[in-house]
Amino acid sequence: MSYKDKIWTKSWDSHVKDLDPKEFEMTYPQAIRRTMEEFPDKMAFDYLGVTFTYKDLDEASNQFAN
């Protein structure tokens, strides 16, 4: 069965474009690092009224690790 035959692709609206799986051939840490570098000022998450940008998250995780 090819990727295009997967059940979830059959429910997509006609205007939805398929993704190139090769674009996502990276590890989870690589994906997070890329996101932090490309979108440092975007909100990473908001929890109980505290908002962290990707830059905040990067700095906090580095402080925790070191």
TrEMBL record:
Q: What name is this protein filed under?
A: AMP-dependent synthetase/ligase domain-containing protein
Native source organism of the sequence? marine sediment metagenome
